Each structure stands twice: as C-alpha cells, then as structure tokens.
Amino acid sequence: MPTLYALKPAFQARLRPLADRLAGAGVTANQVTLLAAALSVATGLLVAALAGHRAVFLLMPVVLFLRMALNAIDGMLAREHGQASKLGMYLNELCDVVSDLALILAFAAAFPASGVVAFAITAVIAEYAGVLGVAAGTGRNYAGPFGKSDRALALGIIAALIACGLWVEAITPLVFPAMATLSLATAINRIRSGLKAGGQ
C-alpha cells in the first residue's frame, strides 16, 4: 500500500546539498542520528510538561518535520559519504524507536492514555516488522498504510489543530485507537510483503 515514504527520493534531493556541506564540515551520520533523537525526546518532555498551554503543541509539527529531515540526512551521509557502519545501523533503528515513543507518548497529556499507549506500541511493532525484513533476507520493508512519515504527518496535523484551538473534542477518544489500528495493519502488511518477497 502506498505511503508518504514514496516521496522520500524527492525529499532527499532537496536536502542533498545540505548533506554534502555537512559531510565536508566533518559532521557524521551518527551525530545527526543522535541529534534527531535528542531533539525528539526534549520536545516530547516539553510538550508533556506544558500541555496545558496549547501553544506548546506548535513545536510538534516543526520538530516532526526536522526529525524527518535529519533522518534523511543521516541516511545520505551514511550511504553517499562512506559513513555506513554497524554502529550506525543500531543507532538508526534504536533512536527511531526512542524518538517515536517520546513524541507519541507526549500526547497522553491531552488524550486518553490507553489509546496513546496502544498507538505507541503498535507503531514500534510496525517498525520492527519492517526491520525484520533484513533478517529474513528480503530487505527493510516500508509497506503502508501508516509508516513513519504518515505517523509524523498525522501527529503534526493533530498538534497544529490543538495549538490553533481547532481540535474537535468529540473525536478525541477515537483518534489514537484508530491510528493504533492503522499501525497494526501496517505491521501485518509488512510481514505479508516480506513473506511474499521471500517466496512464501
């Protein structure tokens, strides 16, 4: 199923000049990976602590976009500037999970915690299902319908609506359970896609 991940090549093309300059300045892919995680964790903690001030949610779409940009840049630094490493692989996957959890769980300050936690768990399961494709020999799987880019867009929109006072309270109990369901469907699709690619 298509996801926003299909736009990644065009997004990378826009960021490639910046990645090239960073490589020339001696910045490493692992440094960028750690920066993205630190930014995500700091934002999650800040939003959770100040959730009573709706304007703080404006940080979310900004940081979610920055995180996606940093993730694209660290990948280009690794692949195109000879910085790929086993440590980088571990950092990339683990920092992605940490960042996801930090940014998603911050919403528990404004939404029913059960739905937010369910979404956080299923988001991690979806990413893990994608990573398992590498172990299965079929490659990292990015099947949809609700991958990392899609989650970021959804969370950014929700945060922006809250910050602008446009959130519809009637759908509050439904949103995160719905996104958890989409994430679970994504995990299932990634497993199916991996099995199909492996000839099973």
Structure description:
It is a single chain. This protein is mainly alpha-helical. 72% of the residues lie in helices and 0% in strands. It has helices spanning 8-24, 29-49, 59-80, 86-105, 113-135, 148-163, 172-197. Helix 2 (29-49) packs parallel to helix 4, helix 3 runs antiparallel to helix 6 (148-163) and helix 5 runs parallel beside helix 7 (172-197). The chain is globular, with a radius of gyration of 17 Å.
The beta-strand count equals 0
Question: Which series of helices and strands comes N to C?
Answer: HHHHHHH
Low-confidence stretches: none
Multimerization status? single chain
Shape: globular
The biggest sheet amounts to: none
Helix-strand category: mainly alpha
Our count of helices gives: 7
Determine Rg (CA atoms, Å).
17 Å
End-to-end separation: 19 Å
Fraction of helical residues:
over 70%
Strand fraction equals: under 5%
Average pLDDT figure: 94
Give the topology, please.
Elements: H1 8-24, H2 29-49, H3 59-80, H4 86-105, H5 113-135, H6 148-163, H7 172-197
Helix pairs in contact: 1-3, 2-3, 2-4, 3-6, 4-5, 5-7
Compose a concise summary of this entry:
With 200 residues, the chain is mostly helical. 72% of the residues lie in helices and 0% in strands. It has helices at 8-24, 29-49, 59-80, 86-105, 113-135, 148-163, 172-197.
Characteristic terms for this protein:
72% helix, 200 residues, 0% strand, mainly alpha
